[in-house]
């Protein structure tokens, strides 16, 4: 497993951002695990997470999976601190990248509108979000960026849950669907497959491994779908 993958999963477990139990997802599915990026709730935790994103992007760029981008966009809400922390990480690595994000409810006074930060017009935008399940949040972000005159260079997320959008019809995940439909690279720091490897190797997570496997058997995507 790539260093940034296992480092991210360990950080997420330590921050209790990765939890096991019974959780209702935005899609309505009941999941035995949940990734809550909001638990990266201190400067040190966010800096560690941002380092994992930056390393995953660098690995994808080296592999030729992702091209040039010149703005980071974080979809509300959890994408906002993630894109901001990643911009700070890039600054630490010597690159000053513009950053922008949206409001879920447009503001009617002051500067108004629903976009905050650097203008998107004419920019090659990298979307920075936490997790992809059914792809609803990512599709919304694609629409926002298009409307604002930006072009999307790719999407980076912390965790690809690798779930089939509609398992009764196909085993294609939301990440695969977005990649095919929009021709965009989707880079994940880690995926359900990585979590399964970790859970399979860890005596602490032995009890979770079976439940994760059962969930994947029911909803999991297939790499060649
Ligand atoms: O792929 P999807 O099925 O859309 O699910 C994943 C999205 O769901 C959550 O966002 P949510 O809209 O709950 O908002 P939040 O960032 O405000 O928590 C999460 O932060 C992802 O963005
Ligand atoms: O599908 C979701 O709604 C979802 C899954 C997950 O692991 N984390 C999250 O914030 N949302």
User: What is the SS-derived class?
Assistant: alpha/beta
CATH topology: Rossmann fold
Overall shape: globular
CATH structural architecture: 3-Layer(aba) Sandwich
Unreliable segments (pLDDT under 50, ≥5 consecutive)?
A: none
Euclidean distance between termini CA atoms = 23 Å
- Give the strand line-up of the largest sheet: 5-4-3-6-7-8
Report helical residue fraction. 40-55%
The gyration radius over C-alpha positions equals 17 Å
Overall number of domains = 1
Any ligands, ions or cofactors bound here, and which? 1-O-pyrophosphono-5-O-phosphono-alpha-D-ribofuranose, orotic acid
Sheet with the most strands, sense and barrel status: 6 strands, mixed
Instruction: Tell me the fraction of residues in β-strands, as a range.
Output: 15-25%
How are helices and strands ordered from N to C?
Answer: HEEHEHEEEHEHEHH
- CATH top level label: Alpha Beta
How many runs of DSSP E, i.e. beta strands?
A: 8
Count, helices: 7
What is the overall pLDDT average? 95
GO molecular function: magnesium ion binding; orotate phosphoribosyltransferase activity
Protein name: Orotate phosphoribosyltransferase
Family: Belongs to the purine/pyrimidine phosphoribosyltransferase family. PyrE subfamily.
Cofactor: Mg(2+)
Summarize this structure as a short list of keywords or feature phrases.
225 residues; alpha/beta; Rossmann fold; six-stranded mixed beta sheet; two-stranded antiparallel sheet; 25% strand; binds orotic acid; Or_phspho_trans_dom; EC 2.4.2.10; orotate phosphoribosyltransferase activity; magnesium; PRTase_dom
